[in-house]
Every structure is written in C-alpha cells, then in structure tokens.
Amino acid sequence: MKKSHMWIMILCCLIPIVGLAAVFLFKIPLSNVLLYGMILLCPLSHILMMKYMGHDHSSTEPDSQHQHHSASVTAPTQGERS
C-alpha cells in the first residue's frame, strides 16, 4: 500500500470523529452538519479521487495498457445531407 493511500484512509477515519466531537462540543445542530456534509461530499470526494487515485502515465512502452487513438471526424456538407 502506498503511503499516500494510508494517509487518505487515516483522514477518512479521523474527519467524522472530529466532526462529531465538534457537533457535541459546540452544540451545532446535526441537521445543518448533515446538510452541508452531503452538499460537500460529492465535489470533495471527486477532487480527492482525481488527485490521489490517478493513473501513472509516465510509461514510455508502446504496449502499455492505455493507448489513446484519435479519429478524424468531418462534418457533413450541404450536398451530403439527407
């Protein structure tokens, strides 16, 4: 396991614990915390996933798993439309 994955797992365990402690210590209404948490869950998890769970594109081998092909697409002209 990579060290960055270990830190992400630790953070994912500590953040809810700290959040619950803040709710009980500062008497924050739980409905507000859940509402804002649900709103922020999708964009934050997407950012973390894109940053830390990316693929290694540094491979210079021609037979690598990811091969990108580009195809040329031309728009139909007026004579070719049906």
**Average of the residue pLDDT scores:** 77
Which class do the helix and strand fractions yield? mainly alpha
Major sheet characteristics: none
Helix content: 55-70%
Overall 3D form:
elongated
**Helix-strand string:** HH
Q: Enumerate the spans where pLDDT stays under 50 for 5 or more consecutive residues.
A: none
Sheet-strand content, in percent, reads under 5%
What is the total tally of β strands?
0
What does this structure look like?
- By secondary structure, this protein is mostly helical.
- The protein has helices at 3-26, 30-52.
- The protein is elongated.
- 0% of the residues are buried.
- The mean pLDDT is 77.
Describe the secondary-structure layout.
Elements lengths: L2 H24 L3 H23 L30
Short summary of the structure?
The chain has 82 residues and is mainly α. It has two helices and no strands.
Index terms:
82 residues, mainly alpha, 0% strand, elongated
